[in-house]
Amino acid sequence: MKRIYLDNAATTAIRPEVTEVMMDCIKNIYGNPSSLHTEGRQARALLERARKVIASSIGASIGEIFFTSGGTESNNMALKCAVRDLGVNRIITSKVEHHCVLHSVDTLKAFNNVDVDYVNVDAHGRADLNHLRSLLGSSDKKTLVSLMHANNEIGTLNDIATIGEICKEHKALFHSDTVQTIGHYPINVNAVNINFLSGAAHKFHGPKGVGFIYIKNTNIIKPFIDGGAQERNMRGGTENVSSIAGMAEALKIGLENLEEETRHITDLKNYMEKKLKGIFPDIIINGCPEDSLYTVLNVSFPPHEKSEMLLMLLDISGISISGGSACSSGSEKGSHVIQEIGTPTDYKSIRFSFSHYNTLSDIDETCSTLGSILSPSSNLKTA
Ligand SMILES: Cc1ncc(COP(=O)(O)O)c(C=O)c1O
């Protein structure tokens, strides 16, 4: 049975060209990039080429890019180093951030005496910028604002250019979790007043367990992982050379095909939304209608007998979808994002997330499978 994968916000399939680059590196470039001999220098050259590709893709200089193990580490690094090394003693964030931001902030509050304020979000999960201005104006503490570019569960986009300007006016630092948008949107750090941003290769058809952080060169921080002198002393440990090379290749190809793939995926999303509304007139579309990730469609279905088994029944039918963020699936608590935007809790929220590998027939099949699982006649509650 051909499977339909609609969980691309959790992770994406690796592009074949990326696998090729990685396999070539695994087989042939086995030197340690810190070694001075030929094999070491070959690995170093690959690493630095990857850094250049990533830096130039976001308009950064190569000295501003550090490789990490992914989005979680990059976000931890930004928040924790800003507190430890840059004198930050107050963080403003929102309650709809990814858990790696929310839990890092909890830790900083508990162990580093950092004040934490949460900016209000509207019914679409978008940060209230007037509230942000008023929070920033209410204290002279050295503040870091951490607001995500796109929400990984409902897709809502924040206007990071305006947030950057507000931070500049109030002399606050700005970190944005850009894990869902790197490789999917053109991002230029010269057009946004931003101090830290984060990327994870597996969200843009690269390998898992590798990512990067952009740190604006005016922010001088100390090592996040102590050890050797790797990553210009900022992160000890021998670099994951093949994955880093794969990440750069994935980003390069993603950006080269951005327009075409964006158009294709946007069409799929719009098609699915329309089709689902035709089958289920009472669904709620979560997220901002005008300003949302083209890769994510989050839908809440009215209460139904089969709601609790829906993901499993879809999986059995060959369709992979998640209820929200991959890290919280399996937990009984439900989504903190859906709770925050006030969608009725007896509705079942499903995140469909697309890639350029999906087709219209994937969408047709998914909608008709949903139609038969959730048909009124199979709902004992309403029968
Ligand atoms: C918005 C956002 N931030 C951070 C992360 C964590 O990234 P990683 O899985 O690479 O650690 C994710 C992944 O789910 C994400 O969607």
Low-confidence region ranges: none
Rounded mean pLDDT is 95
CATH domain class of the largest domain: Alpha Beta
The hetero molecules present are: pyridoxal-5'-phosphate
Number of helices: 11
Helix content: 25-40%
What's the total count of β strands?
Answer: 12
Molecular shape: globular
Secondary-structure-based class equals alpha/beta
Please explain how this structure is put together.
- With 383 residues, the protein is α/β, with parallel strands linked by helices.
- It folds into 2 domains: 4-12 and 258-378, Aspartate Aminotransferase, domain 1, CATH 3.90.1150.10; 16-256, Type I PLP-dependent aspartate aminotransferase-like (Major domain) (Aspartate Aminotransferase, domain 2), CATH 3.40.640.10.
- Helix content is 38%, strand content 13%.
- The strands form 3 sheets. Strands 2-8-7-6-5-3-4 form a 7-stranded mixed sheet, with helices on both faces. The chain has a 3-stranded antiparallel sheet with strand order 9-10-12, covered by helices on one side. A two-stranded parallel sheet has the order 1-11.
- Strand 5, helix 6 (160-169) and strand 6 (173-176) form a beta-alpha-beta unit.
- Helix 1 runs antiparallel to helix 7.
- The chain is globular, with a radius of gyration of 22 Å.
- The two termini are 33 Å apart.
- The mean pLDDT is 95.
- Bound molecules: pyridoxal-5'-phosphate (PLP).
- Pyridoxal-5'-phosphate (PLP) binds next to helix 3.
